[in-house]
Amino acid sequence: MHVQDWLETVPAVSIYALVGLVIGLESLGIPLPGEIVLVSAALLSSQHEGINPVILGACASIGAIVGDSIGYAIGRKGGRPLLAWLGAKFPRHFSEGHVATAERSFQKWGMWAVFFGRFIALLRIFAGPLAGVLRMPYWKFLIANVLGGIIWAGGTTAVIYYVGVVAESWLKRFSWLGLVAAVLIGLASMLIVRRKAKKAATEHAAAGPEPVPAAE
Predict the structure, then answer these.
(1) How far apart are the C-alpha atoms of 67 and 38, rounded to whole Å?
(2) C-alpha angle 116-119-120 in degrees, rounded to nearest 5
(3) Is the dihedral of CA 6, 53, 17, 126 positive or negative?
(4) Residue 77, CB half-sphere, CA atoms under 13 Å: how many?
(5) Are 75 and 82 in contact (CB under 8 A)?
(6) Alpha-carbon span 73 to 27, nearest angstrom
(7) Which of 36, 95, 102, 209 has the fewest CB atoms within 10 Å, i.e. is most exposed?
(8) Do the beta carbons of residue 157 and residue 44 sit within 8 Å?
(9) What does pLDDT average to over the chain?
């Protein structure tokens, strides 16, 4: 069943909760299609007065911020063994190459990696846990997390909503194109990250295992 068609069958409160939950779980480190759900809900809000885009954007932002914060706490507690466990459970998302790519981004950009990672499909699930594993100071993480969550979730909601309002009659017939565009953007990001991940995996293997930081 089409995501947007399914969303039309549930109450607005459930949509707000669903969007916040899915984005929160994705930010926590669980591979879920948070961006697709958010785009679908934003398109739906542009076509139905019962769904308030401001509330939708707020719920998405809260989900992103809270999910990342929980991921940070889990990553700080679990350390590198957590990444190894996730790699075994979700090899497509937490492979050594992907982890190495994300880690290099963190080492190079610091808190900005948390902020900009919000806008890249695969890196979105790494930001919280990896920041915790690498012991990033929480105040830095929190600033980047809040700003990134609000700008990404709120901005995506606003853009898709206003596009839907401007082209409402067109979107009623071809709303699936919005999802296709989101999927294509996500796939493009995934391919870029995957290509970098293969290169990073080779370098990581050549460099050997890194020391595990001592727990506090």
Answers:
(1) 15
(2) 100
(3) positive
(4) 6
(5) yes
(6) 12
(7) 209
(8) no
(9) 75
The residue type of 8 is E
Token duo for residue 184? 């294509």
User: Per the structure block, which two tokens stand in for 144?
Assistant: 């980047």
Task: Quick: pLDDT tens for 10-27.
Answer: 788 888 999 999 999 988
Q: Which residue has the tokens 């809040």?
A: 146
- The three state secondary structure string of the chain is CCHHHHHCCCCHHHHHHHHHHHHHHHHHCCCCCHHHHHHHHHHHHHHCCCCCHHHHHHHHHHHHHHHHHHHHHHHHHHHHHHHHHHHHHCCCCCCHHHHHHHHHHHHHHCHHHHHHHCCCHHHHCCHHHHHHHCCCCHHHHHHHHHHHHHHHHHHHHHHHHHHHHHCHHHHHHHCHHHHHHHHHHHHHHHHHHHHHHHHHHHHHHHHCCCCCCCCC
Please, is 97 exposed, middle or buried when counting C-beta atoms within 10 Å of its C-beta (0-12, 13-18, 19+)?
Answer: buried
| pLDDT band, very low/low/confident/very high, at 70 (cuts 50, 70, 90) | very high
Exposed/middle/buried for 75, CB within 10 Å: 0-12, 13-18, 19+?
A: buried
pLDDT digit string, tens, across residues 143-164: 999 999 999 999 889 888 887 7
Q: Supply 68's token pair.
A: 């990342």
Q: How far apart are the first and last CA of the chain?
A: 48
